[in-house]
């Protein structure tokens, strides 16, 4: 049983949930206890692991970032990202810097309601994927929603960002 099914649990209120509703997205807010693996999280949400979307914050330069959406089973291809951005050096910020850039703690980062207005890049495997989950800005809280509606709402640029051999 997930926490969203327990009586008495209030629906969380996060900037991500408010942003999704303000954008007119049809969402289902789901709460689960912290899973031990991607597969366990997918089972609790009732979606295949590749439909769990993760958000990475990537530093382009001091004070400049891009948010990258990937399927849960995919690994970021740094060469593809560098090529797309025309950048020779990119890096992942530490947890404190990522929170300063987005307003969200690591593990809860989502482009929905993130501060900074950073551009969003989404891997091509997300487009057309149907129902996906994405973090809702709090630990153990995610949104189930249509992948294409999500990409439209965050004005994501859809590009190949994961290695072709990564499972989907």
Question: Could you give a quick summary of the protein structure above?
Answer:
This protein has helices at 15-22, 38-45, 78-85, 95-102, 147-153; strands at residues 28-31, 53-61, 64-71, 120-123, 131-138, 141-146, 157-159. With 168 residues, it is α/β, with parallel strands linked by helices.
Description:
- Helix content is 23%, strand content 25%.
- It has a single domain (3-159), classed as YbaK protein.
- Strands 2-3-4-7 form a four-stranded mixed sheet, covered by helices on one side. Strands 1-6-5 form a three-stranded antiparallel sheet.
- The chain is built from five helices and seven strands; from the N terminus they run αβαββααβββαβ.
- The protein is globular, with a radius of gyration of 15 Å.
- The chain has helices at 15-22, 38-45, 78-85, 95-102, 147-153, and strands at residues 28-31, 53-61, 64-71, 120-123, 131-138, 141-146, 157-159.
- With 168 residues, it is α/β, with parallel strands linked by helices.
How many helices?
5
CATH topology: YbaK protein
CATH architecture group name: Alpha-Beta Complex
Main sheet: strand order = 2-3-4-7
Provide the fold topology.
Blueprint: H1 15-22, E1 28-31, H2 38-45, E2 53-61, E3 64-71, H3 78-85, H4 95-102, E4 120-123, E5 131-138, E6 141-146, H5 147-153, E7 157-159
Parallel strand pairs: 3-4, 4-7
Antiparallel strand pairs: 1-6, 2-3, 5-6
């Amino acid at each position: 049983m997930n926490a969203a099914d327990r009586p008495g649990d209030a629906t969380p209120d996060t900037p991500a949930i408010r942003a999704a509703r303000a954008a007119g997205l049809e969402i289902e807010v789901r709460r689960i206890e912290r899973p031990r693996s991607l597969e366990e999280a997918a089972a609790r949400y009732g979606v295949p692991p590749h439909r769990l979307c993760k958000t990475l914050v990537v530093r382009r330069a001091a004070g400049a970032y891009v948010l990258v959406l990937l399927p849960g089973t995919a690994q970021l291809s740094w060469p593809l990202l560098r090529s797309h951005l025309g950048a020779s050096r990119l890096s992942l910020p530490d947890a404190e810097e990522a929170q300063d850039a987005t307003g969200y703690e690591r593990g809860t980062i989502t482009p929905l309601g993130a501060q900074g207005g950073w551009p969003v890049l989404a891997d091509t495997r997300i487009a057309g994927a149907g129902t996906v989950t994405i973090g809702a800005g709090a630990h153990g809280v995610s949104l189930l929603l249509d992948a294409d509606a999500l990409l439209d709402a965050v004005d994501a640029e859809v590009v190949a960002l994961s290695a072709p051999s990564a499972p989907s």
